[in-house]
């Protein structure tokens, strides 16, 4: 079913120019400009998985923009169970101006976007986390002064990593990705990155990846929904912890989307150190998403 609404299933649903526009608007909103452009507008927030940052930043963001957010948790909607995804999309479109959804199956965000007549924003799926990427790019621009530095991803080639790969390609940000063999970025995502700009350099050597890096980004090794793979993944990721040894010899900032598992993908001392920009990333979720919502609703 055709829809006129622009959706953000992943970050490359924006053009590189639109991405810049959203980041610029986020920066001006962060500086206190922008007013309340979404007065009387409503956001539906559909959650199949837990969240702290995504829920609170979207809900608070709508309040600050003059609008309202409705939280729909796993027991409220039962997406794909109690009711088909396409029916939920069409029903929510009757009431609200925009939908944000955090889902397991990426195909379900595609289907929501296909059937909704209002914009749909991906608040994380098993494959992508574009709102995190917006906040991360804003953070890199603020802390490194632009996208001319060197950034390394060390850890799992997961949802956060995949959107980050695409966002870096769109922004012209040089990126090296170090993952254990078998846990890399999907080939299709690497191909999309190459089409958008430049695919990242890919390695299985964390030390090589962080050499010369201005920022090193990691995320949990066991994502939501992967709990059964925990032991296998902890074994596979040995040597990939972002810790003082790995960072010795660099001045790299440390990025993490949070929540963090101290002692697994990152050491406690490193994430609590001056290097870490993780609270800035968390704060930037608010500004980036406010800008995205206002842009999507042409407000
Ligand atoms: N980074 C992030 O999306 O955090 P939450 O899972 O708490 O929303
Ligand atoms: N990769 C993590 C990100 C959480 C924000 C997960 O999917 O659980």
Topology at a glance:
Elements: H1 16-30, E1 42-47, H2 53-64, E2 68-72, H3 74-77, H4 85-95, E3 98-102, H5 106-115, E4 120-122, H6 130-144, E5 150-154, H7 159-171, E6 174-178, H8 187-196, E7 201-203, H9 206-210, E8 215-218, H10 230-236, H11 244-247, E9 253-256, H12 268-271, H13 278-296
Parallel strand pairs: 1-2, 1-3, 3-4, 5-6, 5-8, 6-7, 8-9
Helix pairs in contact: 1-6, 1-13, 2-13, 4-5, 6-7, 6-13, 7-8
The chain binds phosphoric acid mono(formamide)ester and norvaline (NVA).
The site of norvaline has 9 residues, from helix 7.
What's a concise summary of this model?
Belongs to the aspartate/ornithine carbamoyltransferase superfamily. OTCase family. With 299 residues, the chain is an alpha/beta fold. Helix content is 43%, strand content 13%.
